[in-house]
Each structure stands twice: as C-alpha cells, then as structure tokens.
Design brief:
- By secondary structure, the protein is α/β, with parallel strands linked by helices.
- The protein is built from twelve helices and 15 strands.
- The strands form five sheets. Strands 7-4-1-8-13-10 form a six-stranded mixed β-sheet, sandwiched between helices.
- The longest helix has 23 residues, at 326-348.
C-alpha cells in the first residue's frame, strides 16, 4: 500500500519524535545519566524509536505511523534504520527544532519543547487528521481502537499525574501554573492539573487550537519568570486548562511505570493498559526489544509479531511487568554495574 493510499484509509495516526542535540544545545538526561549530545545517549533513543514503531505496527496495522526528527537517521548495530522505517511505511518528517528556552534556563531535558514544533507542523499540514503523539520509550500493548474512539468524542485526551497543589514537578507546581494562566489570560483558578508530556492525543481541530495558543504564550514562556513553564508538560497543562480540556481522560490508556531497583510501582492492573510508558527501560528492556527486531529485520511487524517478540508475554518478560524475573534482574543489575563502575573509577583518579 502506498503512503498516499494509507493516508486515505488509516483509522488513526500514531507518531513519535527524536531530537539530536549538538554540544551547544545539550542538556543532562537523568534517566540515561549522560548528556543529550553523546553518541550513546542518542543510540539509546534510536533503539527506543524502533521498538515503539514495531510494537505499534503489530497491533495497529491500519494506522498511519509518522516519525518526526531533526536528525539524519543512522545505521545502528548494523541496521539501516532509515531503510527499515521506509520498508515499514513509517512516514519520516524532517523538522528542525525551533522551540528551545534561552540557553542556561534549564540543565535537564532541554529539547522537550520540540513537541510544539510537531504540533505547529500538524496544524499547518494535517489539520483534518487527529494526532496521537507519544514519547519513544513507550510500547504498544494493544490496539488504539478504543483510544481513538474516546478521542473522537472528547477532542483531546490527557494523562494526569496527581500532585498536591504546592508540589513541584520539574520546577513548577500546579499553583504556579495557575498563576501563569491568570497572568496571561485573566482566568483565575487555584491549580492547573499536571498533564504529562509523554502522551498527546488531539483531533485536528484541537491541534489547531493548541498551536494557536502556544504561539500566543511562547513570548511569555521565553521570559522565564518565576511561574513560566520549564518543560513541555507545563505548557501543555496550561494550554489544556485554557482550552477547557477535561483532565485525565487518557489515564485509562497509558501510565508512566517505574521499574528501577529503588522504585518499582508496576502491578497486574498494568496488563490491561493500551500503552506502557517505561522511562527506566531505555537501556534495558528497549535494548532487548531492539535486538529481537534486528535479528528479524527482514520481517514486517504487521506479519512477524511472534519472531520479533511483539506480544504481551514477551513485553512482560523483557520489561519486568508486572514483576521482574530472575534473568531480568540479572541483566538489569549488569547494566547498572556497567554504568556505575566507570563513573566510580574515574572519581578515584
């Protein structure tokens, strides 16, 4: 099927993104414990991108899949990723990043506002199409059919993380976001719910409204006053509040799940979700999934789900959901030691 015919017949649009930072724009990414301009940091994310699309294609074969990036797509571990995405009929949109805070404003996650470049692009070029935009460290467990049905009814779905009004998430609290709304719209409220940025789902009409409002607010964001957004989720939360989008309608479909040694909050209930967001699995579970895809790279995920391991049983095993197996524990511990020992030794010199 050609990309044009797929556009006409697709039941939904699923996308993810990746920004390759240079040294001048790099910031620290805590989950992978390195700067965003390093080769290994970027390789970790490329592996996630491939796992993301493989898992989605397996359960959403009739959906359009779109990848946004500012980077040249590499050959990684002997696999030509650009050729692979083309063969999988993933549409690649090369899009520069224009949405960055003033240099030095933040020390972490400095390229996250790229989602607004994507939103602006979508509003200008795909205004009739809904958009489901996710972080790449997500794995699709089941079909998007119910998710897109709910989206068509609601106009937008948001994933809310519960915070007390005064508790900060990445430098800003619900109270502070409310003050930003008041100073830029005159609408007073006690708090703005924190809508996490790993999940954006909106109809074409709603994406257009989000893009217009983001353009209006961006000068105030760039001022970096005490209540200004520090990351994309702050600005998304503010936009949703100003547009009157109901908070938390997406929580039935996705959850940010932690699988670290220090903090593990997964449970059997997560097996019923549509999407798992697994930030701590970037270097472990997603690396395992990528290796499985590489071994069977000649297959199409729509048809090669079993050899590629694109099924719930395998995701459960390699991601440690709902519990980590002995072999998974050993692999994760080895990965952690490989990361920590060089850092420890360099500190002793």
């Amino acid at each position: 099927m050609s990309s044009s015919s797929l556009k006409q017949s697709a039941s939904c649009v699923i996308a993810t993104w990746f920004v390759a930072d240079d040294a001048g724009n790099a910031t620290y990414f805590p989950q992978i414990e390195t700067r965003s301009d390093s080769f290994e940091a970027q390789a970790i994310y490329w592996r996630c991108v491939i796992g993301f699309f493989a898992s989605s294609l397996a359960v959403n074969p009739d959906c359009r899949h779109v990848f946004f990036t500012n980077a040249k797509i590499p050959v990684l571990d002997g696999l030509d990723l650009e050729e692979l995405l083309i063969r999988w009929r993933v549409e690649v949109v090369h899009l520069d990043i224009t949405r960055r805070l003033p240099r030095g404003s933040v020390s972490r996650w400095g390229n996250q506002f790229y989602v607004f470049d994507v939103i602006e692009y979508w509003a200008s070029n795909e205004s009739d199409c809904p958009l489901v935009l996710l972080d790449s460290d997500c794995v699709w467990i089941r079909s998007a059919r119910q998710l897109t049905g709910a989206l068509a009814e609601a106009g937008a779905l948001t994933y809310v993380l519960e915070l007390s009004d005064g508790a900060q998430m990445n430098g800003l609290s619900p109270n502070e976001m409310a003050r930003f709304v008041a100073s830029n719209s005159g609408v007073n409220r006690d708090a703005v719910p924190y809508c996490a940025g790993e999940f954006i789902a909106a109809t074409g009409a709603m994406v257009g409204k989000m893009a217009d409002l983001e353009k209006q607010l961006w000068p105030a964001v760039m001022q970096q006053s005490a209540d200004s957004p520090r990351e994309e989720a702050h600005l998304l939360s503010i936009i949703y509040a100003m547009l009157g989008v109901a908070p938390g309608a997406g929580n039935q479909f996705i959850r940010r799940m932690w699988t670290t040694f220090r903090y593990n909050d997964v449970s059997a209930a997560d097996m019923d979700l549509t999407v798992w967001h697994l930030p701590a699995e970037k270097r472990t579970g997603f690396a395992d999934l990528y290796r499985q895809v590489v071994r069977h790279a000649e297959l199409d995920p729509r048809e090669g789900q079993v050899p590629m391991g694109l099924n719930l049983a395998n995701y459960s095993k390699i991601m440690g959901v709902p519990q980590r197996s002995v072999s998974k524990f050993a692999r994760d511990l080895l990965c952690k030691l490989r990361t920590k020992i060089p850092t420890y030794l360099s500190g002793r010199k």
